[in-house]
Design brief:
heterodimer; A: mainly alpha; MetI-like fold; three-stranded antiparallel sheet; two-stranded antiparallel sheet; 64% helix; globular; B: 480 residues; mainly alpha; 3 domains; 1% strand
């Protein structure tokens, strides 16, 4: 058999580029690359021509011009005198706030619903199935619009909260009342919630264009420090258990370390809550949370939670029964079986789809435009775009920012995912 | 031998199980009250159901179907059920349902979308239920009945009536002989649907479809002489030449010679579920093949092809659909040669298709990765080339594994068609509902339109997910 020597080594013919599998893939790739380069050149050429005919140029200088519009919800300082870049940052922060709160809420609701759907309780199981199917099969936009409309059209006006002297004399209650021990008022203008105030706040430090709130920084440092100390305590307890076999009691140390410093800091800074109160025609004091924000968070959380519930259910079902039986046979209690056997295995199944749900939720925050929530899409891709007429720059920048957020989320979650996957040895 | 004092010589009848261990009581104890925690859950559940019923039942029972405005509705409810009672005002749906379904499509032409929808079901049936003669016949019969009623209600011309009946009945006859040939109707359907919905010259879809004939003829003529890939490549180049160079003059010449056509309907008259279904079905149809190609590209050994596919998929998946739709409405005018301006619905369909294709590619890649490598090796060992191996061995298995995820991507796509509202198209949810709610007569109505639209979406999406479960069971060949 002279198979190997049949292959001609040095006689290269042009037709081998197509018929010889050794060269064909190179031919195809070069061909594809040329096509792609031509396509990109065509796009760039068209864009340049179109920009020229419209008399526009491609630069991002407009970002430093005065924005001139107001943003309802601003978590970093902003006035209509700030520039467009500042407006972009405010929008970005608004997007991230909705995304983070939405992800946390959706995870909590989703896990609870997913577990309850598996419970032995027939009634609860059916109820949860109805919830999941209802939210999964109806567009998210409907939930956003519906919750916004309900919040802004069925809630009472601020004046309904007022008690006039006659009503007080007659012992009548006002048409509407505040909820949660008279601290939160839901009106048709928004939700008034108490705001934390500090008698002896630390002020803020101005670093050029960024100003750092020292009070918030102090809280972050203290809480971070507490968590670090707590993890040391747990590690010490575990080391002791490994060495001697008995586990020291740590729960009271954990409680003290986690809550003590924060409480001390709050007392030291003079933390108190300013409760909104009806003065004149509107509520004063506290923070006014716009209904667009509330509706967006509620709708996103409930919608995504339905998907997460299915993921959690599938993850738990994927662990075979033998695993928990084996754990019981080893003498583990149900709690430890869950912690040590079921959960680590279920997480492996749950986390990858969970990542994509978080990504979906983050991208879906852009639907806030339906209820005029000024997120990144509303500021950079909405008002700024319309005012400056820079479609190309605004859209490209916006896509780039969304892409970056998505990539960061998936990188972080993939890192976490790789830490719970099976370690192949 | 000791005397036997007592021997029972007949069987005792078995005694009834304890009350707590049988029947309804046992079921209740096991399923609702098996412990303290479960009992609390059950009570909470009962309370939730009770409060929903208390809030919603009178509202449903007091429904008003005949009224001209919301205030009139409220007066009728107050007269019927007393002051302070709530009631649904379905009169709004009764007055405006056609806008929710058709948008601003001319009402005397409603028979066209209706016919297109009926034929859509007929065209999908051979794909979805191929080989199941009974199901196929049943669905076609339902289509015939549906068209009979709706075309009559929409006031279609007699000739349309007769033609469409002939088509569907002919399909039933073909289905009896063997369902494979019905796929030709499915292949022709896109052109037919386009013509029915947008109207205009009949030559536009005919000449466009001829491009595929050019492709097929070129492929068949060359495939014996060169490799299939070269033949396909030449065919595609010829077809593209047909579409870009010959298509337009030929259409105009034919129309000048034979001015056959029906009344044209502009894209801005489309709306409601007509728009959602048009975009959704087209995008679903086109995204699957593109998604498969992207998935294969991502799995391929060729570095450049792989990089391009990965870049495309990750870019599309990383940005929200809204930004892509805005690209369609704002940026495409920059990227295309000056002076090009094509229909907004078409632009949106292209972007939605690409969006869905990227998601499908990831889903199918999961299916490809889940196949044991022995399958690939076996295909190689049989001497199959790449495309044969994919077509005969790999893809059938990979697609089967990914059916549930493919269908959920489709469901997501259909739900996402509502987002076209943001580029000024009239989707059923935001577009039409906004118009209705802006009407002075119906100002302040909110539950009714959202329940109506939501219910239709629910039926369609839930139906799709049930179908995927059916398909999964049907294709399940492993023995577990």
């Amino acid at each position: 058999m002279a198979v190997a020597s049949d292959v001609p080594k040095d006689s290269f013919r042009l037709s081998m580029l197509i018929y010889d599998t050794r060269y064909r893939s190179i031919t195809i790739q070069v061909f594809v690359l040329i096509l792609f380069a031509l396509f990109v050149a065509w796009l760039l050429n068209n864009t340049a021509e179109n920009l020229a005919t419209r008399g526009k140029e491609f630069n991002f200088g407009f970002l430093w011009q005065r924005a001139g519009y107001d943003i309802g919800q601003q978590l970093i300082p902003y006035t209509n005198d700030s520039n467009h870049f500042r407006a972009l940052l405010v929008g970005l922060v608004n997007t991230l706030v909705v995304a983070i709160i939405g992800c946390v809420l959706a995870t909590v609701i989703g896990v609870v619903v997913g577990v309850l759907r598996l419970s032995n309780n027939w009634l609860i199981g059916r109820l949860m199935t109805v919830y999941v199917e209802m939210f999964r099969n109806v567009p998210l936009l409907l939930w956003i619009l519906l919750s916004y409309v309900i919040l802004s059209e069925t809630t009472p006006q601020p004046r309904d909260f007022r008690i006039t002297d006659e009503m007080a004399a007659a012992g009548e209650a006002p048409a509407a009342s505040m909820i949660l021990w008279d601290t939160v008022a839901v009106t048709n203008r928004g939700t008034n919630i108490p705001s934390p105030l500090f008698d002896r706040g630390l002020g803020s430090l101005d670093l050029g264009f960024l100003s750092v709130n020292l009070t918030a920084l102090a809280y972050i440092l203290v809480i971070g420090g507490s968590i670090w100390v707590n993890s040391r305590i747990i590690a010490a307890a575990r080391a002791r258990q490994e060495a001697t076999g008995d586990r020291p009691v740590t729960w009271w140390k954990t409680l003290a370390v986690l809550f003590g410093p924060v409480i001390a800091l709050s007392v030291g800074l003079g933390l108190h809550m300013e409760v909104p109160a009806l003065t004149g025609f509107n509520f004063q004091g506290g923070i006014l949370v716009a209904h667009s924000f509330t509706a967006l968070v509620i709708a996103l959380a409930l919608y995504t939670a339905a998907f997460i519930a299915e993921i959690v259910r599938a993850g738990i079902l994927a662990i075979s029964r033998g695993q928990s039986e084996a754990a019981f046979a080893l003498g583990l209690r149900p709690g430890r079986t869950m912690n040590l056997i079921i959960l680590p295995q279920a997480l492996r199944v749950i986390i990858p789809p969970l990542i994509s749900q978080y990504l979906n939720l983050t991208k879906n925050t852009s639907l806030g435009i339906a209820v005029s929530y000024l997120d990144l899409r509303g500021t950079l891709g909405g008002i700024t775009l319309n005012q400056t007429g820079r479609e190309l720059e605004c859209m490209l920048l916006m896509m780039l920012i969304y892409l970056t957020i998505s990539l960061i989320i998936s990188a972080v979650m993939n890192f976490y995912n790789s830490s719970v996957q099976i370690k192949a040895r | 031998m000791a005397p036997i004092n007592f021997v029972r010589n007949e069987m005792l009848a078995p005694s009834a199980p304890p009350v707590r261990e049988a029947g309804a009581v046992k079921w209740l104890r096991e399923n609702l009250f098996s412990g303290v925690f479960n009992t609390i859950l059950t009570l909470v559940g009962i309370y939730v159901i009770y409060s929903i019923i208390v809030a919603a039942l009178p509202w449903w029972l007091n429904s008003v179907w005949n009224a001209g405005s919301l205030s009139e509705c409220r007066e009728i409810v107050a007269a019927q059920a007393g002051e302070g009672a709530t009631g649904a005002c379905w009169a709004m749906i009764r007055e405006r349902w056609h806008q929710f379904i058709f948008g601003f499509y001319p009402s005397e032409l409603y028979w066209r979308p209706v016919l297109a929808f009926g034929l859509l079901v007929a065209a999908l049936a051979p794909v979805l239920f191929g080989g199941q003669k009974r199901n196929l016949t049943m669905i076609l019969a339902v289509v015939a009945a549906f068209l009979l009623v709706t075309l009559w209600m929409a006031g279609a011309p007699l000739v349309v009536f007769v033609l469409s009946m002939a088509v569907v009945l002919g399909m039933i006859a073909v289905a009896q002989a063997g369902s494979g040939k019905l796929l030709w109707f499915t292949a022709l359907y896109p052109a037919l649907c386009f013509w029915l919905l947008w109207g205009g010259s009949i030559w536009l879809p005919v000449v466009a479809m001829l491009g595929f004939v050019v492709l097929g003829v070129a492929y068949l003529a060359l495939v014996g002489r060169t490799s299939p890939m070269t033949a396909a490549g030449v065919g595609v180049v010829l077809a593209l030449a047909w579409w870009f160079i010959l298509d337009k003059p030929l259409t105009e010449a034919l129309f000048a010679a034979l001015p056959w056509g029906i009344e044209a309907v502009a894209s801005d008259q489309f709306g409601g579920f007509l728009l959602a279904i048009t975009i959704g079905v087209t995008a679903i149809g086109f995204s699957l093949p593109i998604g498969i190609l992207l998935a294969l590209g991502r799995q391929s050994d060729m570095l450049i092809v792989k990089t391009l596919c990965v870049g495309f998929i990750e870019f599309i998946r990383g940005v929200p659909l809204i930004t892509l739709l805005f690209t369609a409405s704002l940026l495409l005018q920059y990227f295309l040669p000056p002076g090009t301006n094509f229909d907004i619905i078409l632009r949106v369909i292209i972007l939605v298709t690409l969006f869905a294709a990227a998601y499908l590619a990831e889903v199918i890649r999961g299916g490809l990765a889940a196949l044991p490598s022995g399958q690939y090796e076996a295909a190689d060992a049989l001497g199959l080339d790449y495309w044969r191996a994919q077509r005969l061995i790999i893809l059938p298995q990979a697609l089967k594994i990914s059916i549930p995820s493919i269908v959920s991507t489709f469901i997501g796509l259909f739900k996402d068609t509502t987002l076209v509202a943001f580029v000024g198209l009239m989707d059923p949810l935001k577009g039409v509902t906004q118009i209705v709610r802006a009407d002075i007569n119906w100002k302040g109505i909110y539950w009714e339109p959202y329940i109506f639209v939501g219910a239709i979406f629910f039926v369609i999406c839930f139906g799709m997910s049930r179908y995927s479960m059916h398909l999964e069971r049907k294709l399940k060949t492993d023995h577990r």
